Every structure is written in C-alpha cells, then in structure tokens.
Amino acid sequence: MNEKNGPRPLDYQATSFSQGRMDFAWEKPTPEERARSYADWRAGKGLIGGDPRQRPHFDKLPEWGLHRPFLRALALDDHRAANGERFRQEIAGARPVEIEIGFGRGDFILDRARRMPESRFIAYEVKTKAVHLALRRVEKQGIENLWLSDDDVRMSVPPTIPDGRLDAAHVLFPDPWWKEQHKGKRLFSPPFVDLLAAKIRPGGYLHFKSDVEQYGELVHYLLSQHPAFSHHRPELADQVGPHLPTHRESWCRAHGKPVWVYYYPRQHEL
Ligand SMILES: C[S@@+](CC[C@H](N)C(=O)[O-])C[C@H]1O[C@@H](n2cnc3c(N)ncnc32)[C@H](O)[C@@H]1O
User: Fold this and answer.
1) CA 243, CA 257: separation in Å to the nearest integer?
2) CB of 127 closer than 6 angstroms to any ligand 1 atom
3) Residue 198, CA distances (Å) to 45, 119, 137, 175, 245 in order
4) Residue 16 has pLDDT above 70, yes or no
5) pLDDT in tens, 158-205
C-alpha cells in the first residue's frame, strides 16, 4: 500500500521534521481494553489539552476568531458574533462536506478547498497558533468554503455535525504518540471509528495516510473489523483526486521515507 504515484511536493520548505522513533506498538484490544476505551472516551480522557470545559471562558470565542470562519463547539452560541449561526447554515445546506483532522500547516485542505469550490470543508487542528496562521492564509487567498477549529476533533464533531453528513474524512499523518503512557491520546480507537461511522454518509470514505507502517496496521485492523466500513479500496484514490501533499508528506518524500495510504468506503447497508 505504499503510494507509488504521489502528488508533486509543490510548496515544500525544509523544516525541523525528524523521523522520530519508529517503534509504534499496538495489539488487538481485548474485550476489557475495548470496554475501557469506551469508558475513557465518555470520561473525556486523552483529549489534547484536557477537558475543554475546565478552561477559562470555554464558551467564548477568542477575539481573533470573531466574525471569521472559525469554530469552537463549546462557543457556538457566543452572541458577540454570528460564527455559530453561519456554521450551522452551511452544514444544513445540501453541499458536500469534508473534514480534515490535524491539518498542521493546512497545505492539503487549503488546496482542496480551492479546487472544490462547490464543497464545504471543516479542518481541525488543536494547535491554536497553527489555526491562527492558517486562518490568515484562508483569508489572504480568498477561500470561502473552509472553516477551521482548534478543538480536539473528538469532542467537537459529535455535537456540531449531523450523522451521515460527511462525504469524506481525511486523517493525514496523525501523531503516533509513541510512548506507552501517551497511547490514550492516539486518535484511532474503537469509539473514534464509531464516530467516523456515524458521521460519514453511506458511500463516503475515510482517507488515511501515515509514515508509520504500524499505525497503518492499527487503522487497518480497526476499520476492517467495523461493520460500517468496507475493506481498504485503493481505487478510491481516483475519488480523492489530485491533491497537494501535507507538510509531513512533503518531508517524507524529500527524504525518501515511505508513506502508507488507505481508503475505507462507508458501507451503504449494515
Ligand atoms: C504529525 S502532525 C501532521 C500534520 C499534517 N497533517 C501533516 O501531515 O503535515 C499531526 C497533527 O494533528 C494534530 N492533532 C492531533 N490530535 C488531534 C485531535 N484530536 N484533534 C485535532 N488535531 C489533532 C496535531 O496538533 C498535529 O499538528
């Protein structure tokens, strides 16, 4: 599943990416571990930055996010701006909606939003500074179909996106969280796959890439044994279409590191 004909790394500049440790370990969860992962999910364990309700002014948007295509699930009703109202209207419309989770510098999603003006995009990145920078690029480039959020996607998507509303979810180079004590922060877990199954419409798909082969194996295991998803279908690459690589992918390609790519269609019938 090593991608052979990858997209051109057009706007890559060398930065401080390192290869990192490549000893990602995972095992098929036992029934007890599976039950624990659901209990942890319900308790909000593993959320990046902790429980957002504990943050001061969690129900207020930051000043810099007012009147911009910026979303925080807990501040949707901040009456100082119509962000929430505008977001709800867009989601309620009939246009296709795609999300990217962990967009980093935003190369992939800004390019995709420009290429597909008829679709709507929502992109999540917990690093607030990165969101701030990407928002400036969105506005500078006149992109009008992309919303950004610095929420942890795991708490943001359930209350804001109706079931079956997404045409695609792109998860490109998620953090591996190598250390045993950090495993709980890993994005992919049984309840996260349930969330994808609920929000992606039948016929939609999950698009996943990683330079950590074993993370790909974990995702492959979790998706393949989930009744809502079909097995990896490489031909879905055509449906994703041409796209810019993410910053991490550009780095991998510049350094000759392999990239694993998977596409999982959401089943029509369960
Ligand atoms: C390894 S970086 C990859 C960034 C980008 N996709 C790329 O390929 O260059 C993973 C990104 O996901 C973000 N992230 C991790 N967990 C997240 C979560 N639960 N919700 C939203 N963003 C998350 C991190 O802050 C980080 O910027």
Assistant:
1) 19
2) yes
3) 21, 20, 31, 23, 27
4) no
5) 999 999 999 999 999 999 998 888 888 999 999 999 999 999 999 999
Round to whole Å and give the CA distance between 51 and 232.
34
Mutate to test the pocket of ligand 1, among 126, 171, 249, 252 (most ligand atoms within 8 A of CB): 126
The per-residue pLDDT for 22 is 60
**Atom number, ligand 1, closest to the C-alpha of residue 245:** 8
Residue 5 has pLDDT above 50, yes or no: no
Measured from the Cα of 47, ligand 1's closest atom is: 19
Q: Cα separation of 87 and 256, whole Å?
A: 40
Which residue lies with its CA nearest to atom 15 of ligand 1?
102
Mean pLDDT of the chain: 91
Q: How far is the CA of 235 from the centre of ligand 1 (A)?
A: 26
How far does the centroid of ligand 1 lie from the alpha carbon of residue 73, in Å? 18
> What is the pLDDT, as a whole number, of residue 135?
98
Q: pTM surpassing 0.70? A: yes
| Segments making up each domain of the chain, as ranges | 33-47+57-265
246 lines ligand 1 (CB under 6 A): yes
Cα dihedral value 83, 50, 42, 209, nearest 10: 80
Residues in the chain: 270
The 10s digit of each residue's pLDDT in 29-39 is 999 999 999 99
Catalytic residues: 175
- What's the CATH code, domain 33-47+57-265? 3.40.50.150
Ligand 1 atom closest to 250 (CA): 9
